[in-house]
Design brief:
7 helices, Glyco_hydro_2, TIM Barrel, binds (2S,3S,4S,5R)-3,4,5-trihydroxy-6-oxo-oxane-2-carboxylic acid, 6-stranded antiparallel sheet, beta-glucuronidase activity, Ig-like_GH2, Immunoglobulin-like, 8-stranded parallel sheet, Jelly Rolls, 3 domains, glycosidase
Amino acid sequence: MLKLKYRLLIICLSLFSVSTYAQVSSIQNIQSRKILSLNGKWNYIVDPYENGFYDYRHDPFDQSKSGSGGFYDDRVQKDKTELIEYNFDLSPQMNVPGDWNSQSEKLELYEGTVWLRRKFNAQPETDKRYFVYFGAVNYEAHVYLNGKKLGIHKGGFTPFQFEVTGKLKAGENSLVVKADNTRKPDEIPTINTDWWNYGGITRDVFLAELPAHYINDYKLQLIKGSNNTLNFVVKLADATAGQEITVAIPELKLEKTFTTDAEGKINQQFQWNKINLWSPEKPKLYAVTIKSANENIQDKIGFRTIETSGNNILLNGKSIFLRGISIHDENPLLAGRLRSEGDMRMMLQWAKEMNCNYVRLAHYPHNEEMVRLADEMGLLVWAEVPVYWTISWENPATYANAKQQLTDLIVRDKNRASVIVWSIGNETPLSSPRLSFMSNLAETARSLDDTRLVAAALEVHREGNTIILNDPLGEKIDLVSFNEYAGWYWGGTPSEITRYSFNIKYNKPVVITEFGGDALGGFHADENTRWSEEYQEALYKNQITMLSKIDALRGMTPWILTDFRSPRRQHPVYQNFWNRKGLISETGKKKKAFFVLQDFYNQMQVKYK
Ligand code: GCB
């Protein structure tokens, strides 16, 4: 009985302490703040039994009375009698940012806990606030500074930060992260996906030094439907009234000063007439400064409008065709998450070579740097959250998690002109709990940002030779956007698929979010032979013929730019843990179908000039 009481107490204490960790909302444009990079070599310990987290009764050390005992203490043996069964200093190192799977053969298929530690020096000043910022950790991160827990974060693709003011030491500090990429049914994504579950600290880590009343978030964008009215929003980290904030765009001779209200906020609209609008053809970005008495934040922002009208997508008021391709956050040549600007540029450059004006960054938020590059290179973006396949639709915690990831994505990327679509998910199976889950996500996206389109990659079904789209979620979103795999998973050989026609319930622009088929780069045969480049080429030709029958067709992002790693793809000759639907192979060679799509996009470019 006593034991049960004790256990209940521990559970209550642990719930209490989880909720008391300081959760701060995302700091906008971290790169432009005063930051110390904590990237580089981190020592790591692989911990499949979570030995550094639980004691031998499986109670977490960080919930014990002393709060210590775990690997986050980062202890070293003081004398020869002392027993310590771990040692970060003597453990191997890996690169951060970087997934662990691609850095050690032993970890290629590993799913579980790895502890990572970085030491750094700091000289904290008394009137400043300090934060550790993570671009992304997959999936669950427990973060400790100098042996004290800062907090927990779930979600593998969105940024988070913890305040360390008063916790940072002058001199050497030890930052320890327990990263756990175990797949679980109630998480976002769930246990089943078609991509590699890369674990670790996959994006930048910074220590940020900010003034006491720092600017936490800001937005500068055109309001919905206007090409000359700007909306300027600022949120200070605290409710300081009367702070003057100036927004300036020297090139436009624009300079305006506003004062924060009682909540520490500014939300103002004003007209400016000489703005050159951003488009893929002319990706005009303006140098923008946002200044307060103690801060000077630099950004590069483009301005454009996006809306739908009947079957058309209007960019800056003009009907466009989205010449797109889907992309995963993975470098096919080195098989790992994209690690640097060079990696990201390579992917987007390939899309440009295909004459794309649009990319689908599937199936989760990509790096902030990727979206900034799209801004710079002139590529429109579909940005997505990993609400993928069969999620736990009825679990409120799962919904809260999905909503948080969507919110963090929108908060992070709302100043990027390239982003035109917030996607709330991919191929989610019809049911009424799913419909309310997804409808609520759609509403969340709209309430956070009413200037972009909201969409999801839906599914179709068939009756005879008719492909039908009537998913009720179609009513709540702005595009008829769906995946269909005619010629690969169903519908016969590529030449047989042109018999299909479409029955689409909604009068909205149709954007095909996926079609495709696998081809092993360099394998040549006739066009009915699976896995050959000729099969994939014929599939693309016939898909284009079939899809061109849809009057409302306004774009597509075939699946996918490059081959990518997937544990679901096990054919020993043709797949070998690779999904081969790439138009570019894992050696960087363009397959035949690449040129079919390029040709089609050249025609569409002329048609929509
Ligand atoms: C899909 C999924 C995508 C898969 C693809 C495939 O429908 O959205 O994540 O990788 O099919 O290759 O089967």
